[in-house]
Specification:
It contains twelve helices and 14 strands. It is of the alpha/beta class. The strands form three sheets. The chain has a six-stranded parallel sheet with strand order 3-2-1-4-5-6. Strand 8 (215-219), helix 8 and strand 9 form a beta-alpha-beta unit. The two termini are 21 Å apart.
Length: 369
Amino acid sequence: MKIAYLGQMADVSRETSIAKKIRAQCLFWQEAGHSVRYFALTPTLTVWPGFAPVTADLLAPGNPLARLLSTPVLCRRIRAWQPDVIYFRYAHHSPGLPALFQAIPTIAEINSDDTTEYALTLSPAKQLYHRFTRTRLLRAVSGFVPVTHELAQRFAPFGHPVCTIANAGDLASFCLLPAPDPAANLRLVFMGSPGTPWHGLDRLSELARLAPELRFDIIGCTVGDWCAEMKTRDSSPPPNLLFHGHLSRTQYEPMLRQATAALGTFGLYRKGMDEACPLKVREYLACGLPVIGAYRDTDIPDGADYFLRLPNAATPLAPLAEKITAFLNRWTGQRVPRSAIAHLDLRAKEPVRLAFMKQIVDGFRSSAP
């Protein structure tokens, strides 16, 4: 198949979890014998060097008015390439997309509930536009690949074929890290992004104050991001909460090596969701780090000893301090064995995704007049 990967709100100009996910998917599809090209409107035409050897056809839209005119140009580029299928990382409606999706079978990857997330991140005007255009866009696609069962249920009313595939990890690209010295001070690591209140950066501050003996390395966020999250500039974060900003993998891997455990999502309740499969958690586990998170993970069995699931709520963390301490003490000097997480590997998931694409393409052709 010729697969056009259409990205929305995915920055491939630098090394991020999303950029690494798109790269890994495209490379697997290419290795499976398919032709793949990545298309997107992007703030910059710069591409993270690690994105290669994926071919990227990018368009810098400029200001909001220019963006309205740029999407049809991108649609024409996709049509000119003549793909068999479009794999669409869904985020929002843009002019020209519904007609494109009606002409070429399109599968939308659903990574979040946009109706609740955008209430936290978009201006009232953008929310209004999204509310009035999302149905027209989503009705035009041919199928959905939600990353959780919860999202599959929420998008079921559209009546499209659905194949739920949780986020994967490229396990072969990570080494199981050695455990730190059991006598060393306990350290926790967290990877997050600015402007994502569901990551729960403020909740980590509460945890850091409860356990001043722990060191928390925060990757991807700055003190300024913390102030914005806390909506105050009059106080400082706890001294054991250390912010490192955006780092490449080679820069943050030493912190993973020194960490006893890692922290997942802590504020998912803020967008009315309970289930998730964060990319960072796949990376933590691929490196052997046990995880603490406040959500239900699509791929992690209930009671898995390497995942401490806390309540997905705004309730105080103080009553959970003893449970967290016990979890950390149990994992001191240990790593999660690769055999426990083999099912998270993209090599187990991408064949399912490709088979679903083929099913959608065959169905689209058989229904064509």
